[in-house]
């Protein structure tokens, strides 16, 4: 497959960066993951707005206009025959002599690729997924979609070691998120979500689910959620570009609600599939 690197499309095997790239040396970069359905990007404007916010947060100059980013994503989609794709974009603070402080002259490294998107299995959608809990040991700027992902990598491996696809993390007794997903709680027909603050990444699906809840008359509360509330939940759900929206049927070996995907999940899943079909 062909990938994009610093202005050119090249075969993946020929795309090379310097070992002094600050993405390699410091994890000094940010990224985006845009799902594509039927060759059309889903919620592209929101993804590009978040890319802009991530760049601003770590003070990397944005090398492209929105139009240029849209054109690049369009060209990345053309590199693949797949109908459904995952477009990955990454920017780092470029190549410089090793020094933690920013270099005087920054030429960001810009990388893009598209891969076929294996959507969640019917098994996961219909029967749900298992999760385990763990303390959230990450830093205090989880709102930045940074490539410094060691905390997330260790959390995802904590799940893998226990043969489940995702963790549910808690910080100071409150729900934060998964290793690479947002987490949703349902209690008495109400949808609960952690605050959009510095302790979670605001998923593009977070906004989408907010919109769907409003359109479908599902009451939504965004606030701190205690461990006790998670344990007493009627439903739990995960959302991310690659998981879309998935029901969680167990946490630490205990069933969530009645142990089956619930009615609020079913309504949101229907909304998700409708939005994709309309793209
Ligand atoms: N939280 C974290 C830590 C993530 O890495 C992700 C993305 O994969 C999400 C939440 C969900 O974000 P999105 O819906 O934009 O994929």
TrEMBL record:
Xref: Gene3D superfamilies: 3.30.470.10, D-amino Acid Aminotransferase, subunit A, domain 2
Any single Pfam family the record assigns to this protein: Aminotran_4
Record's keyword annotation contains Zinc: no
Domain of life: Bacteria
InterPro entries: Aminotrans_IV (IPR001544), Aminotransferase-like (IPR036038), BCAT-like_C (IPR043132), BCAT-like_N (IPR043131), Class-IV_PLP-Dep_Aminotrnsfr (IPR050571)
Keyword vocabulary terms for this entry: Aminotransferase, Transferase
SUPFAM superfamilies the record matches: D-aminoacid aminotransferase-like PLP-dependent enzymes (SSF56752)
Molecular function as annotated in GO: transaminase activity
Family statement: Belongs to the class-IV pyridoxal-phosphate-dependent aminotransferase family.
Record's protein name: D-amino acid aminotransferase
Source organism per UniProt: Pigmentiphaga daeguensis
